[in-house]
C-alpha cells in the first residue's frame, strides 16, 4: 500500500527459519489509513491466516502462523481498518498453545542487535625476520655423486685444454718475435745458433698454416731462408731442426708439381701430391727413418717440364728415377745437385735431358748405378769423372756412345768395382779391347745390337756369368776357345751373329740367321 507521508521505518536484520521474510508496517492510530483497492465483495479463495494478538508498537512482524479460522480477505480488511475482527478468537487449546509458542519464539528473536563498537587496533610492532642460512642438506638440492664427479672431471679437462692453448700461443709468440741470438762458448766459437726472425716466421707458417693450405706456403721466400740456417742449429734444437728439414724438403718436392703441365699436375694430384705436407706418403716418394727423402721416382705424365733447381733441397736423396716421353723433362740436371752426396742410383729414361754433369761422380762419390736409356738429346759421351768413380753398374741403352769401352777399361777403379756393363744399342763399332779381361769383378757383359767386329779377345773376365753379343753381324768366324772355357758362365747368347763353334762352346747359343732380334734385358749384378 502507499502512504501519504514518509514515515520512519525500522529495519532489523532478524534471522528466520523461513526462506523469505515478510515485513508488515503497522501505522499509528492517528494516521489515516487508505481504503483497500480491492472490492469487499470479491470472493478470495485461499487459506486463512490467524494473526497474533501481540502487536508490538513500531515493530515488524516477520511471519504469520497459518490457521484456518479467518479468511485472508477479512484479515486484510481488518488490517486496513486498524481493527481486530470479532471473529478472531481462540477456538481451541491447540491454537492457543501454538500462539504461545509463536510469541515466545518471536520475542526471543526480536531482541535489539547489540551495537559492536569498532575496536581500535594498535600499530603492529616492526617485523623482525630471522635470517637463516641456505639449507644445504635439503634433499631437493642434493647432487648425485656420479654427476658431481663427472662435472669435476669435465671442469678439469676444460682447464687443461685452456692451459694447453695458452701455452701454445705463448710458445709461438716467443718463436716469432724472439730476436736472433748466438750463444758463444769459451773458445769463441758459435754453438746452437737460434733462428732469425725470418726463419722463425717461415718455420711457424709451415707448422701452423701449411698442413691446411700446403699450396699457400711461401716456398719462394722461405726455402732460401731456411737453407741458410747453419747446420749446427740441430745440436740444441732437435725438434725445430726436424720441422725445418721437413719444410725444406716439402718446398723441393712442391717445385716439381709447380713446374709440371696440367696433365702432370693431375697425375701428381692423383698420387696425393701437395694435398698435405706429409710428403713421405706421396706416390713415388720414400723416406728413411730420419724423415729424409731417400727415393724419388717420377714417371710420365707426372713429370715436370724440366727438373727444377729446388730438387737440390733433397740433400738426403739416394735414388732418383725419371721416366719421360722423350720430350720432357728437358734441360739438364739441377745446378745444385751437388747436395746429393748420398746419391747411389740415377735412372734416366726417355728424357730430353742434354747431359749428365761431368763432376757428378766427384760429388756423389757413393753413386753405384747409372742407367741411361733412350735419352736422344744427351750426346755420345759419358761423364769424364766416371773414370775416377767406383761405379758398380753401368747401363746405357738405345743412345749413341763414342768408344766407351776404351774409356772404361783405362780406369783402375772401375776394373775392380764394375760388376754389370750393358752397352747394348749404343752404336759401338770396332773390336772389343783385350783389356776387357782386366775387369776382375765383372759378372754381366751385354754388348748386343752394335757394330762389333772380330777378332774377339782371347780371354774374358773369369767371374763372368752372363755374356751376350747378339745382333752383331760383324762378328764372324769360328770360336776357337775364348769365352767357351769360362767355368762360371751361365748364359751365353751369340745369336744373329756370324760366329760358329764347330767343336761346341758349352752353353753358348749360336744362330746362322741374319734376322735381328731385340737385345736381352740386362740384370744388375749383386
UniProtKB/TrEMBL annotation:
TM region positions: 152-172
Could you confirm whether the keyword Transmembrane appears in this record? Answer: yes
Where is this chain compositionally biased, Polar residues type? Answer: 33-42, 49-66
The record ties this protein, via InterPro entries, to: Leu-rich_rpt, LRR_dom_sf, LRRC69/RLP
Q: Is Thylakoid given among the entry's keywords?
A: no
Segment Disordered: which positions?
1-66
Going by the UniProt record, its keywords in alphabetical order are: Membrane, Transmembrane, Transmembrane helix
Pfam families annotated for this entry?
A: LRR_1
Q: Where is the composition biased (Basic and acidic residues)?
A: 10-22
Q: Supply the name of the protein.
A: Leucine-rich repeat-containing N-terminal plant-type domain-containing protein
Which species expresses this protein natively? Phanerochaete carnosa (strain HHB-10118-sp)
Which taxonomic lineage is given here?
Eukaryota, Fungi, Dikarya, Basidiomycota, Agaricomycotina
Amino acid at each position: 500500500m502507499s502512504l501519504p507521508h514518509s514515515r520512519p521505518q525500522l529495519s532489523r536484520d532478524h534471522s528466520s527459519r523461513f526462506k523469505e521474510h515478510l515485513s508488515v508496517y503497522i501505522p499509528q492510530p492517528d494516521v489515516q489509513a487508505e481504503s483497500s483497492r480491492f472490492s469487499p465483495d470479491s470472493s478470495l479463495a485461499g487459506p486463512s491466516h490467524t494473526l497474533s494478538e501481540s502487536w508490538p508498537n513500531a515493530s515488524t512482524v516477520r511471519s504469520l502462523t497459518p490457521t484456518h479460522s479467518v479468511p485472508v480477505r477479512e484479515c486484510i480488511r481488518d488490517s486496513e481498518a486498524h481493527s481486530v475482527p470479532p471473529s478472531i478468537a481462540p477456538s481451541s487449546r491447540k491454537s492457543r498453545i501454538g500462539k504461545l509458542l509463536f510469541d515466545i519464539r518471536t520475542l526471543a528473536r526480536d531482541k535489539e542487535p547489540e551495537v559492536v563498537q569498532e575496536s581500535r587496533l594498535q600499530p603492529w610492532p616492526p617485523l623482525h625476520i630471522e635470517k637463516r642460512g641456505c639449507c644445504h642438506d635439503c634433499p631437493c638440492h642434493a647432487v648425485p655423486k656420479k654427476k658431481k664427479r663427472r662435472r669435476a672431471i669435465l671442469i678439469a679437462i676444460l682447464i687443461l685444454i685452456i692451459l694447453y692453448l695458452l701455452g701454445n700461443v705463448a710458445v709461438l709468440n716467443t718463436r716469432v718475435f724472439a730476436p736472433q741470438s748466438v750463444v758463444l762458448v769459451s773458445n769463441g766459437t758459435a754453438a746452437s745458433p737460434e733462428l732469425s726472425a725470418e726463419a722463425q716466421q717461415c718455420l711457424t707458417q709451415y707448422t701452423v698454416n701449411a698442413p691446411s693450405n700446403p699450396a699457400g706456403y711461401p716456398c719462394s721466400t722461405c726455402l732460401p731462408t731456411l737453407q741458410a740456417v747453419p747446420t749446427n742449429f740441430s745440436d740444441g734444437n732437435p725438434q725445430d731442426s726436424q720441422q725445418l728439414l721437413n719444410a725444406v724438403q716439402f718446398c723441393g718436392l712442391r717445385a716439381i708439381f709447380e713446374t709440371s703441365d696440367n696433365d702432370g699436375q693431375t697425375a701428381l694430384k692423383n698420387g696425393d701430391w701437395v694435398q698435405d705436407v706429409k710428403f713421405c706418403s706421396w706416390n713415388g716418394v720414400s723416406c728413411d727413418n730420419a724423415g729424409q727423402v731417400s727415393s724419388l721416382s717420377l714417371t710420365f705424365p707426372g713429370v715436370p717440364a724440366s727438373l727444377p733447381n729446388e730438387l737440390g733441397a733433397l740433400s738426403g736423396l739416394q735414388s732418383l728415377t725419371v721416366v719421360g716421353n722423350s720430350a720432357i723433362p728437358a734441360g739438364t740436371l739441377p745446378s745444385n745437385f751437388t747436395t746429393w752426396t748420398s746419391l747411389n742410383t740415377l735412372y734416366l729414361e726417355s728424357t730430353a735431358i742434354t747431359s749428365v754433369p761431368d763432376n757428378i761422380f766427384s760429388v756423389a762419390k757413393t753413386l753405384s748405378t747409372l742407367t741411361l736409356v733412350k735419352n736422344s738429346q744427351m750426346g755420345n759421351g759419358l761423364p769424364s769423372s766416371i773414370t775416377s768413380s767406383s761405379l758398380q753398374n753401368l747401363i746405357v741403352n738405345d743412345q749413341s756412345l763414342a768408344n766407351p769401352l776404351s774409356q772404361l777399361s783405362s780406369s783402375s777403379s772401375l776394373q775392380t768395382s764394375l760388376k754389370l756393363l750393358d752397352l747394348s744399342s749404343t752404336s759401338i763399332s770396332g773390336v772389343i779391347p783385350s783389356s776387357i779381361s782386366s775387369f776382375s769383378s765383372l759378372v754381366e757383359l751385354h754388348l748386343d745390337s752394335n757394330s762389333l767386329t772380330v777378332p774377339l779377345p782371347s780371354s774374358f773376365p773369369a767371374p763372368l756369368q752372363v755374356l751376350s753379343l747378339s745382333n752383331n753381324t760383324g762378328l764372324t768366324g769360328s770360336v776357337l776357345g775364348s769365352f767357351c772355357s769360362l767355368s762360371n758362365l751361365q748364359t751365353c747368347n751369340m745369336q744373329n751373329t756370324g760366329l760358329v763353334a764347330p767343336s761346341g762352346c758349352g752353353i753358348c747359343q749360336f744362330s746362322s740367321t741374319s734376322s735381328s732380334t731385340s737385345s736381352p734385358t740386362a740384370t744388375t749384378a749383386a
